[in-house]
């Protein structure tokens, strides 16, 4: 969590719903009904990368809110490499060869480099 949850009122379907908002370091915003604790806009479990660390067992899924969309970019792929010049593009592609690329729930790597986007330091 980036900070303390915020208490807000959500207007939906002509009703006012008392809610709590939790904003994560990776740019995900969870909006929950303050009374029931249930997501107002839904949350789904999505498959995420698994840990490669011996004897470590990471969760096969993690929660993602359906709304609102992430407040920061949450993906990075080879298609995102800078193409300012052919030389720069080639150097960047060489730099990420064999590097594990992943999103907000990418576990630590074991014996290889990785790029988590957004980083663990926050979005």
Number of helices in the DSSP assignment: 1
Strand-residue fraction? Answer: 25-35%
**What is the approximate shape?**
elongated
Order of strands in the sheet with the most strands? Answer: 1-2-3
What is the number of beta strands?
7
Q: Could you tell me how far the N terminus lies from the C terminus, measured between alpha carbons in angstroms? A: 12 Å
The H/E string reads EEEEEHEE
Helix content: under 10%
Describe what this molecule looks like in 3D.
It is built from one helix and seven strands; from the N terminus they run βββββαββ. With 123 residues, the chain is mainly beta.
Task: Looking at this protein, list some descriptive labels.
single chain, mainly beta, two-stranded antiparallel ribbon
Brief summary of the model shown:
With 123 residues, this protein is mainly beta. The protein has one helix spanning 86-95; strands spanning 6-12, 15-23, 29-33, 43-47, 61-65, 100-102, 114-116.
Question: Topology of this protein?
Answer:
Layout: E1 6-12, E2 15-23, E3 29-33, E4 43-47, E5 61-65, H1 86-95, E6 100-102, E7 114-116
Parallel strand pairs: 6-7
Antiparallel strand pairs: 1-2, 2-3, 4-5
